[in-house]
Write a structure and sequence with these properties.
elongated
């Protein structure tokens, strides 16, 4: 890229800045911030509801953005270090909320959950409640380990909503349980005392 292009770009930017100073308007047509508008934002920073009436010509997002550009808003949390991410992978899936909070003292629960979810780290699902039928409990546990949903179990058994809508609560279908167990690679056996 020739140096003259860079020079032309810098000159064009300088002309645009001078034009904005002269007209008091940005290229998009928004008025520039005046010192009398900036003063209430700086003086009353965290109390936005009292700032808004003093700068009526500005939208609420514009006031928030100006406060951020002035550097008076709260600083963002530091980025997650590699050690913190490793600790997150260890503690987050199986630790209690208190254990996770203790592992990251400078972070909020929301920040921890957001960082974990952004990296594909999720909480372990709660244990399945017992249905009262041993074979059905084993099928549901195996399906969870294999990553099958209850709709997938319905597709395996070629039934409509037996697993997804928990129709086993009203009437157990042992034949269907055997079909699905075999489809998932299991075997059915009888044990006698």
């Amino acid at each position: 890229m020739p140096k003259s292009w860079l020079v032309r770009g810098a000159e064009s930017a300088e002309r645009a800045r001078r034009r904005m100073e002269l007209t008091g308007i940005t290229p998009n047509g928004h008025p520039l911030w005046q010192p009398e508008e900036v003063a209430p934002v700086v003086a009353m920073y965290p109390d936005y509801p009292s700032i808004f009436p003093l700068v009526e010509s500005r939208t609420h997002p514009a006031v928030y953005k100006k406060a951020g550009r002035l550097g008076i808003t709260k600083r963002r949390a530091p980025p997650w270090s590699d050690n913190e991410i490793l600790r997150l992978r260890k503690v987050y899936p199986h630790g209690t909320r208190d254990q996770v909070r203790a592992a990251f003292p400078g972070r909020s629960n929301e920040a921890i959950a957001k960082a974990a979810n952004a990296r594909g780290i999720f909480r372990a699902p709660p244990p399945l409640p017992s249905t009262g039928n041993r074979l059905l409990d084993q099928i549901l546990t195996r399906a969870r380990k294999m990553g099958f949903s209850k709709l997938d179990l319905d597709a395996l058994g070629r039934c409509k909503g037996y697993f997804a809508h928990r129709r086993w609560r009203t009437k157990l279908d042992e034949r269907l349980h055997c079909i699905v167990a075999r489809q998932m690679g299991g075997t059915i056996r009888a044990e006698f005392d």
